[in-house]
Design goal:
It comes from Leeuwenhoekiella palythoae. Keywords: NADP, Oxidoreductase. This is dTDP-4-dehydrorhamnose reductase. One of its GO terms (molecular function) is dTDP-4-dehydrorhamnose reductase activity. By secondary structure, the protein is α/β, with parallel strands linked by helices. It has a domain of about 190 residues: Rossmann fold. The strands form four sheets. It has a six-stranded parallel sheet, with helices on both faces. A three-stranded mixed sheet has the order 11-8-13. Helix 1 crosses helix 7 and helix 6 crosses helix 8. The longest helix has 21 residues. The relative contact order is 0.15. The model has no long low-confidence stretch (mean pLDDT about 95). The structure holds NADPH dihydro-nicotinamide-adenine-dinucleotide phosphate, dtdp-4-keto-L-rhamnose and magnesium ion. Dtdp-4-keto-L-rhamnose binds next to helix 6 and strand 7. The site of dtdp-4-keto-L-rhamnose (TDO) has 20 residues, from helix 6 and strand 7.
């Protein structure tokens, strides 16, 4: 039996994985309250005592704007904890599936970023995630991978989709950035891909893959789709990023190339708009 440990169990992806695997006795899940990953000794003990064979690291510091102010906290979790987890995985011959982000790229490209493209993060969150990736690559863990995804949303936690649904009820108009494009990704789709495709992945070192829903759109397009889908009368006004001041800069062209994933795992990725429609229905059904 492959003993799988999912960290960040209270996060969006962690909760989607729980929805699929909570009843599976080979899976265990920990939240921050149950096991703070900054406690290296506890992490090593947990891996050893539970004879963990695969770690799916869904824990991260994901507050993009706050990371500009609390950079130390972002680096601690997204780089230092990841490096420690990688060393522990190496010591106990555990495979690691680590999640990363489109924000490792600079957004200056004009075609989707392949896994081999040079990184050049433009904010603290992106840099901290990239440094975590690099720490893992340096360890060259067998059968392990870095899985980058983008613009995650789900019925859980907070995300852009839920923010827009809320604003759609409260306001007559929302202004949304129209010059940043990317691939919104349904965390439920990602969770299903991880459990069906990645648990018996074989490689001699740490490989990099991209998983994002198919198609692409701007945050503005996404907001329009959300308002239409939820039958909100709220108008969506397109604005340039320069008119929406945030502590963290965001990439303009944040599109992950998923070719390698489709080819190596022989999967077709669902379109962003069909997954989004399903998620909105789920949110509305539960109130
Ligand atoms: N959200 C997005 O849009 C995207 C996310 N990603 C990446 O995907 C992965 C999953 O993201 P997502 O599910 O949205 O993240 P969330 O922010 O929803 O969840 C992250 C979880 O990590 C936990 N955590 C924080 N600090 C610690 C700690 N010291 N010890 C243990 N757990 C801790 C948090 O706990 P608590 O709930 O207590 O804060 C939280 O539950 C991350 O690696 C992220 O970088 C990639 C692209 C897009
Ligand atoms: C709420 C709101 C946001 N925006 C803009 C701000 C920003 O440019 C864009 C998205 O804002 P958010 O803060 O929701 O998204 P952000 O936190 O940048 O999302 C990112 O999170 C991290 C964790 C990732 O890894 C990325 O893939 C990406 O999903 O929308 C508006 O234009 N109008 C609005 O009313
Ligand atoms: Mg955010």
């Amino acid at each position: 039996m492959n003993r799988v440990w999912v960290t960040g169990a209270n996060g969006q992806l962690g909760r989607c994985l729980q929805a699929l695997k909570k009843e599976d006795p080979s899976f265990c899940f920990t939240t921050r309250e149950q096991l703070d990953l900054r406690d290296i000794a506890m992490v090593a003990q947990f891996v050893e005592q539970n004879r963990i064979q695969t770690v799916i690291n869904c824990a991260a510091y994901t507050a993009v704007d706050a990371a500009e102010i609390y950079a130390e906290a972002a680096y601690e979790l997204n780089r230092d904890v990841v490096a420690n987890l990688g060393r522990i995985c190496k010591r106990f011959s555990v495979r690691l599936i680590h999640l990363s982000t489109d924000y490792v790229f600079d957004g200056q490209a004009y075609r989707p970023y392949p896994t081999t493209a040079a990184c050049g993060p433009i904010n603290v969150y992106g840099r901290s995630k990239w440094e975590g990736e690099e720490a893992l690559r340096a360890l060259a863990l067998p059968n392990s991978l870095i899985l980058r995804t983008s613009w995650l949303y789900s019925v859980y936690g907070s995300n852009f989709v839920k923010t827009m649904l809320r604003l759609g009820q409260l306001q007559e108009e929302v202004q949304v950035v129209a010059d940043q494009v990317g691939r919104p990704t349904c965390a439920e789709d990602l969770a299903r891909f991880i459990v069906t495709q990645l648990l018996d992945f074989e490689s001699s070192q740490t490989e990099t893959y991209h998983y994002a829903n198919a198609g692409l759109c701007s945050w503005y397009d996404l907001a329009v789709h959300i308002m239409q889908n939820s039958k909100s009368a709220c108008r969506v006004a397109p604005i340039p990023a320069s008119a929406y001041a945030t502590p963290a800069a965001r990439p303009y062209y944040s599109v992950l190339d998923t070719e390698r994933t489709q080819k190596d795992f022989k999967v077709r990725l669902p379109y962003w708009n069909s997954s989004l429609t399903r998620c909105i229905s789920q949110l509305q059904a539960t109130g």
